[in-house]
């Protein structure tokens, strides 16, 4: 390997319903990393109770990936399996938590290979919510990083657009009560909890590259995803307040903004608005009750 800073472990959870887009995007990522001369380790974590599909996954990805299987259907559990594998083989470098629907601009690998990021335990790239993908290379003089605040981390950062050093991930795990999949107690919220925890562990320091892009398909306009993750969002606020006392009052402020936004959507009679508000409040109260929190 060239150096630990030029080495990337990609933890890539997937399920059988996503295998089509997953195969396309992970092959694209493999090509980009090879073209950028980055040493990489792919850990595919396949979540399924279907043994026949597990065999198919082994055949399709076993040649260039370490394939792990899990019958726990929760992305947080799958990512934790990936972290544990990385540590078991004593991998040193940086870690990316890949999402099936994500693609990256070539500029991401330019800044990955640059001296700007080699010593950073935590940094993010810009997210474009679009199907339009532009592949560009940029000059070194155009590369830039901006120091992030806790508000930036809370509202603008995504775990699949972040690069973590392996040292930062020691004793760092996703909260498996939160996640995506039927085995999670709360749907959603796991990304924010993990990123905030890593940010605070890194002494409230992280950086953001505005000129390097990850692409995510546009969010649905019918607010169906807001409804799906509403209870998890409420529980996430409860967990943040309970777990991270140093930012408790800041999180309470964010919670009040979220509730006010939900009330405004109710006033404007937006789709699912009353259900979203009800689920956010119930998720928050459920978490507080289950944790026996003394606020």
Account of the protein in words:
Strands 1, 2, 3, 4, 5, 6, 7, 8 and 11 form a 9-stranded mixed beta sheet that branches. The chain has a two-stranded parallel ribbon with strand order 9-10. The chain contains 10 helices and 11 strands. Strand 1, helix 1 and strand 2 form a beta-alpha-beta unit. It is an alpha/beta fold and 295 residues long. The model has no long low-confidence stretch (mean pLDDT 90). The termini are far apart. Helix content is 42%, strand content 19%. The chain folds into 2 domains: 213 residues, Spore Coat Polysaccharide Biosynthesis Protein SpsA, Chain A (Alpha-Beta Complex), CATH 3.90.550; 68 residues.
Quick synopsis:
This protein is of the alpha/beta class and 295 residues long.
Key traits:
10 helices, 295 residues, alpha/beta, single chain, 2 domains, 9-stranded mixed sheet, Spore Coat Polysaccharide Biosynthesis Protein SpsA, Chain A, 19% strand
Topology readout:
Elements: E1 7-15, H1 19-35, E2 39-47, H2 51-61, E3 66-70, H3 75-88, E4 94-97, E5 103-104, H4 107-112, E6 122-129, E7 146-147, H5 150-156, E8 162-165, E9 178-179, E10 186-187, H6 190-201, E11 207-216, H7 224-228, H8 230-243, H9 248-267, H10 273-291
Parallel strand pairs: 1-2, 1-4, 2-3, 6-11, 9-10
Antiparallel strand pairs: 4-8, 5-11, 6-8, 7-11
